[in-house]
Amino acid sequence: MSYDRLTPDNAAVLFVDHQTGLSNGIQDQSLPEYINSVTALAKLTKTFKLPAVITTSAADGPNGPILPVITNLLPDAQIVHRPGEINAWHNEAFVAAVAKTGRKKLIVAGVSTEVCVAFVALSAAAAGYDVYAVIDASGTWNKLVQEVAVARMAQAGVKPITWVAVGAELLGDWRTPYAQEHGQLMADHLPFYGNLVGSFLAAKQG
Amino acid sequence: MSYDRLTPDNAAVLFVDHQTGLSNGIQDQSLPEYINSVTALAKLTKTFKLPAVITTSAADGPNGPILPVITNLLPDAQIVHRPGEINAWHNEAFVAAVAKTGRKKLIVAGVSTEVCVAFVALSAAAAGYDVYAVIDASGTWNKLVQEVAVARMAQAGVKPITWVAVGAELLGDWRTPYAQEHGQLMADHLPFYGNLVGSFLAAKQG
Amino acid sequence: MSYDRLTPDNAAVLFVDHQTGLSNGIQDQSLPEYINSVTALAKLTKTFKLPAVITTSAADGPNGPILPVITNLLPDAQIVHRPGEINAWHNEAFVAAVAKTGRKKLIVAGVSTEVCVAFVALSAAAAGYDVYAVIDASGTWNKLVQEVAVARMAQAGVKPITWVAVGAELLGDWRTPYAQEHGQLMADHLPFYGNLVGSFLAAKQG
Amino acid sequence: MSYDRLTPDNAAVLFVDHQTGLSNGIQDQSLPEYINSVTALAKLTKTFKLPAVITTSAADGPNGPILPVITNLLPDAQIVHRPGEINAWHNEAFVAAVAKTGRKKLIVAGVSTEVCVAFVALSAAAAGYDVYAVIDASGTWNKLVQEVAVARMAQAGVKPITWVAVGAELLGDWRTPYAQEHGQLMADHLPFYGNLVGSFLAAKQG
Amino acid sequence: MSYDRLTPDNAAVLFVDHQTGLSNGIQDQSLPEYINSVTALAKLTKTFKLPAVITTSAADGPNGPILPVITNLLPDAQIVHRPGEINAWHNEAFVAAVAKTGRKKLIVAGVSTEVCVAFVALSAAAAGYDVYAVIDASGTWNKLVQEVAVARMAQAGVKPITWVAVGAELLGDWRTPYAQEHGQLMADHLPFYGNLVGSFLAAKQG
Amino acid sequence: MSYDRLTPDNAAVLFVDHQTGLSNGIQDQSLPEYINSVTALAKLTKTFKLPAVITTSAADGPNGPILPVITNLLPDAQIVHRPGEINAWHNEAFVAAVAKTGRKKLIVAGVSTEVCVAFVALSAAAAGYDVYAVIDASGTWNKLVQEVAVARMAQAGVKPITWVAVGAELLGDWRTPYAQEHGQLMADHLPFYGNLVGSFLAAKQG
Amino acid sequence: MSYDRLTPDNAAVLFVDHQTGLSNGIQDQSLPEYINSVTALAKLTKTFKLPAVITTSAADGPNGPILPVITNLLPDAQIVHRPGEINAWHNEAFVAAVAKTGRKKLIVAGVSTEVCVAFVALSAAAAGYDVYAVIDASGTWNKLVQEVAVARMAQAGVKPITWVAVGAELLGDWRTPYAQEHGQLMADHLPFYGNLVGSFLAAKQG
Amino acid sequence: MSYDRLTPDNAAVLFVDHQTGLSNGIQDQSLPEYINSVTALAKLTKTFKLPAVITTSAADGPNGPILPVITNLLPDAQIVHRPGEINAWHNEAFVAAVAKTGRKKLIVAGVSTEVCVAFVALSAAAAGYDVYAVIDASGTWNKLVQEVAVARMAQAGVKPITWVAVGAELLGDWRTPYAQEHGQLMADHLPFYGNLVGSFLAAKQG
Question: Which part of the chain is the Isochorismatase-like domain (chains A, B, C, D, E, F, G, H) (predicted)?
Fold first, then answer.
């Protein structure tokens, strides 16, 4: 029952199969919301300098290449192209890449939630990691599949979470050096917050 | 598996970041429903003379001041303005204020559900408190975030609840002195109940 | 195709069967939202000093008395208790009361949308009035009934509207004397707007 | 733009293909709601002694027999078993049966809304009848089909309506002899109203 | 992890505050669906001769009398009118009535789900009973409250269930003497099943 | 207000941009439902030997090739590959192909509803055709876009419809030679109907 | 019944009260979707060099400044700050600015749909303009208000539309010089389309 | 907390009461989606040569015969016609058939989710099997029943899952001999994936 937060020092991020083709099968949320959340998670990874591992499934086939927003934001992240394993945890290079991060808390997102995310999450939890599944930076075929995937992962001890909470845990305190960059990220991707800031500054200056 | 109810003697209420700006980001319920539930929770706190701790995050910035309905109803509640900590439990003054209530059961509500509520709830539970998260007197960015937040808190042993149930546990029995004030509260904030009373009195007098 | 707005001088408001019992049958919106909208419409009536006619159906029976919020806000409105007519337009006193207002634009709300509102609206339109049906200050048994009622009224030339639009047409310009009272009304019943004002004033004063 | 209500003297009811098999394809509302609405419409027909025509499509095949609740309530209604025509208006016996009612207002319900109801409604309107399509006493395969069917019929001048409004137009006034039977019908099929009556009588007697 | 089914010999049914007034506050399902499910549960109780305890909260006030369908179907059930206790388990007569049934499995339904049902369910579970909460034969103010109530009860080991599953566990086998009466119950309250039977018999006889 | 049905002799079908890429942007219905409806419409075209015109937009680019199910079922349909025109009606070959069908009733479906379908529908209606837009054999980016597209087309006199109604108008009577093939089509694509048939035959043979 | 499309030469765009404060009241769609659509409409305006008029309501008060994305994209658009008129059409400078565009087709979007958009749309239509209301680049307080606003505008001849359709009408043909910039816009704001392009290019190059 | 995947060697599939009549009562998803998922699960069973047990409840009565798609795809599966037991686990032949498969992981689907699936799942879990309940290849009367059934099964350790995840666990790696057949299955039943493949191949060949 202990609660220790995600920090820039204890967490790594796993981007699993956020590919252009697979992303077009998502119907558990709107595509603009999905892209917005994925972008926000990638920016959080960059802002907090978290080690990241990106993996793909048959990226030279119909599943398509990685969403460019991820690779553009995280040019140095290790990418593991899996030749066939559906569960990235079955790929030794991926497991090694995760291990090399030295982190024990894993933030996992991907497409689809019930396959690419759930399999990695369940495997990593079984391997002793503390796993967080970012449901809104992931996507799947319909709302029912999402609900079932969350229930299955929660049952196994994987923590369901969403990107704003990930960011809030990582930042921890608005007096840290990360705050300014994080604030901009929030304003850009949680639009009501950007609106708040705009209104506030105008009122101050008005 | 024991069940012991919330009482006026064993519970305190924590209002976490119910600020005007943050409240305008809520989309997991309608704003009239949210304001109605927050007001009801504040009135419950007043009716049952529960110790309350109010906390804010950057209240002099875009997040905005506390909803006036809370401070108007609870003028004597301790307010902890956090200079930067996102998780109120990381603020020593807040933890001390909670401890000073002497209560072991904590009723937590706030904005947003998955950050301000969940972090406090998870931390307080880890610290040994019995924590109730009031989901309808809280709010967040969309229904998915709410669902994920409830799942995460429930997984950790935090009890999800709604304001009517909080009030019913606190009252316990309609023969106590609190009943009249509580009845009025119910009539005002659970509108069907107010309608019932209006119809009943008219029928009796008709 | 001409468009001339509702004004304090050309419109009257008809409250049709907003009774405590009938209101408890509403499921096309939440009760807190319904009560909030009805209250707002009554306040608009008061603010803009619109002539109002209130009517009831069997108010001394199960349908129950008028919602007190209406009669409290509009103590001088004429009330026509119908002895049996379902369509208020079939009641001579009601039609006379409407005629006595001298207004050609009628703002109609009530319970239920497809009966009490639609029948009056269709009859009044047939009688030459320009009729506005306020859908969110009305209510009915489920969303399907609401949709069908709106389609039927729109088909017959009745204008579907909601309370914020009614208020905005009536005010017309924020430089009129009504503006201050109207602003408070908006802040109280469109909660996000109240939050905006609270944040703005705090930022100005901060 | 004239508005003249449905009355016991000017309206007939057409039940189109409310068959046991076809009814099991309905997904635009729940089955308990559908059966409840169909039963209420049949009782309205009986209460107000409206002429009724029942028709079926291949009732000795998979479409199944007429819902027994309809034939039980309306044992004297003429039944036209269509040997093949999908649009009942293409069946001479049906058109003749409708004509024989001598009524110019037709209340139409059936399964499915966009076929059996819409075809009859559009044909009858083209033939000069004033047609009301009872959407909640009808049913179809999903919500989209329902919405499209309502839009198509409304576009052609067919009036979309629901059963409670049909009953309210027919009754017209609670002081007519029909009132008692109609009140019981309402209490039985609009459950909140039955609850209102139960509460009212108890309060009166209490 | 053992699974032993509800049987006519090991289960009792608790009807908690299914009162006419309270029932009119339900918005987590339609009223026709709610009444249908409550009626079905009462019929199951009668069919399987289960001991039943009915309890009310302030039945001579606005909450109103028990739904007549329950008392009509179960005229011999013990009724405990609570003078003030919100949690029926705090009423000694109620607890004694439950104990007197001699059953260790309790099937609980009522209004509202998160108060009247949840409090009894949590208390009874704490007292060692095996508790089933029948969510569709219960009701509450909106879908969110329902979801939170289910989550809270499930967290505490109460089994969430719906009336068809209760009936199926009780019957166990279609070759028992209960089958005929149960089949009629299913046909009447799960309308698609009644339609299936009607179609089947017609096909057989056709 | 005349109503004359679609027949095998008076109607043609236009398939507008049902391409593999575009189809993956659909979120106003599930993809299995969309594919099912498109397939059914293509089969209807084949069954009733309707002239069909298929058109594509940049089929050798990201929009992708025509859904194979369409071309497989309708190998002889004329295909007009548009080099750039978004509105197919701006393409002379397309308009000529439509004219060559000699039909005055046009059944239009495509992706997306508000662009490819609506533009053709509005243009064809302006050119004097009687246009039917098949909403469930079309698709678009979200439910709001669908609703707005239907409203716009209905406003302009285009008839909104769904595939089952198209088929029912075309068949007209179950005693025509088309009936057997049409019945199989219905059983395959309106699954509840296939189930009905399966149950019926079993009961007959049982 | 004529249909003539929006073109770069016949249309102007009106941005009505897209202010930071007002935008935070939107609940008829998610904020990421709203911002995405508004941005897309502003980019369309820029791409097709459409004359634009931006107007605000009390922009130095709680309503807040214009969304920066609009003014950044359209630095040369005329801005009319209204001192008090709710309906921008009541402001002479605004009407003059619209007239000065010389365009007879007006594309209107704003916050809120039923006030700021509908009033301008109805007034402009009454003044003889051909008006298109862009529902997804507008926003309002809840889905019901949106539906009612669309019904009211459609009833008055205003054409409901969404941003992708606006863009498609403006582009007209992918062989025009606008195509490249428009394609990028589509890829950026209709994310599935961006994914299509990404997959296509990868497949081509792979 | 270990995670070991479903494999062709450790799993069996149980099809419980997927009968034509029962399937027509499903309202927790659309029928096209349900049939699509059931078909996919049957094809997965065939592709991976999993032992399967099919069982029916009163298949010669109104419940109807097994969906032909299942028996057509799995002609060699053992079928246990239960003479009366509702819970298939109470039928010795069924339990024996399951035992004879020699598998310890059971994939269960059926109609209805909360009865036929849940009872078998709970019983099998109690008997020591590792049970997966395939929610989208199952169906029930409404969404609430589905949610409650998932909650009850998850509480008891049954793993909720959907058919795509089942297939992905079984395949494990796209380099196995099963891949080609599995890919075709995915393309046929997860339509966006079929579209992806179609677009990809066209781009490659284009």
Answer: 12-163
Is the pLDDT at H2 greater than 90, yes or no? no
The catalytic residue positions of E are 116
* Cα dihedral A139, A144, A147, A152 in deg (nearest 10): -100
Mean of the pLDDT values across residues H47-52? Answer: 98
Task: Give this complex's ipTM.
Answer: 0.96
What average pLDDT does chain G have? Answer: 97
- Give the domain ranges of chain G: 11-173
Task: Report the residue from E20, E34, E192 with minimal CB separation from D31.
Answer: E192
Cα angle, residue C25 at apex, residues C23 and C26 outer, rounded to 5° = 75
Query: Has D135 been annotated as catalytic?
Result: no
Residue F2 has pLDDT above 80, yes or no: no
Nearest to G152 among C159, C173, C179 (CB): C159
Q: Whose CA is closest to A197, among G68, F145, B90, G150? A: G68
Distances (CA, A) of D50 to A85, D14, H109: 69, 10, 48
Neighbours of chain D (3+ CB pairs under 8 A): B, C, E, F, H
Interface of A with B (CB under 8 A): 1-3, 5, 29, 33, 135-136, 146-147, 150-151, 154, 157, 159-162, 164-165, 168-169, 171-176, 179, 190, 192-193, 195-197, 199-200
Contacts with F10 (C-beta within 8 Å, 6 or more apart), sequence order: F4, F103, F104, F105
Q: Which residues of E touch F (CB under 8 A)?
A: 196, 199-200, 203-204, 206
Residue E161 scores a pLDDT above 90: yes
CB nearest to G20's CB, from A34, A35, A195: A195
Indicate if the pLDDT at residue F183 is higher than 80.
yes
Shortest Cα–Cα distance, E125 to chain B (Å): 7
Strands (E), E10-124: 11-16, 52-57, 78-82, 105-110
* Complete DSSP assignment for F126-165: HTT-EEEEEGGGSB-SSHHHHHHHHHHHHHTTPEEE-HHH
Query: Pick the catalytic residue: G107, G116, G121, G158?
Result: G116
In our burial notation (b when 16+ CB lie closer than 10 A, e otherwise), range B142-163 reads bebbbbbbbbbbbbbebbbbbb
Question: Model confidence at B83, in pLDDT bands (50, 70, 90)?
Answer: very high
Tokens 């060099």, located at residue = G49
Amino acid at C35: I
Using DSSP bridges, classify how beta strands C130-134 and C52-57 pair: parallel, antiparallel or unpaired. Answer: unpaired
Torsion (CA) H125, H127, H129, H131 in degrees, nearest 10: -20
The predicted pLDDT at position G206 comes to: 72
Domain A11-173 grouped into CATH 3.40.50.1110: no
Chain F contacts to E (CB-CB under 8 A): 196, 199-200, 203-204, 206
**Nearest-by-Cβ selection for B65 from C23, C59, C198:** C198
Nearest residue in chain C measured CA to CA from A199: C200
Distance from the H129 Cα atom to the nearest Cα atom in chain F, whole angstroms: 33
| pLDDT attached to residue D2 | 76
pLDDT by residue (tens digit) across D138-197? 999 999 999 999 999 999 999 999 999 999 999 999 999 999 999 999 999 999 999 999
Helix (H) or strand (E) holding E191: helix E191-205
pLDDT tens digits for range G78-123: 999 999 999 999 999 999 999 999 999 999 999 999 999 999 999 9
Amino acid identity, position H116: C
Give the tens place of pLDDT for each residue, D67-109: 999 999 999 999 999 999 999 999 999 999 999 999 999 999 9
Q: Where are the beta strands (DSSP E) in chain B?
A: 11-16, 52-57, 78-82, 105-110, 130-134, 159-161
pLDDT higher than threshold 70 for residue F140: yes
The catalytic residue among F52, F54, F106, F116 is F116
Q: What pLDDT sits at residue F173? A: 97
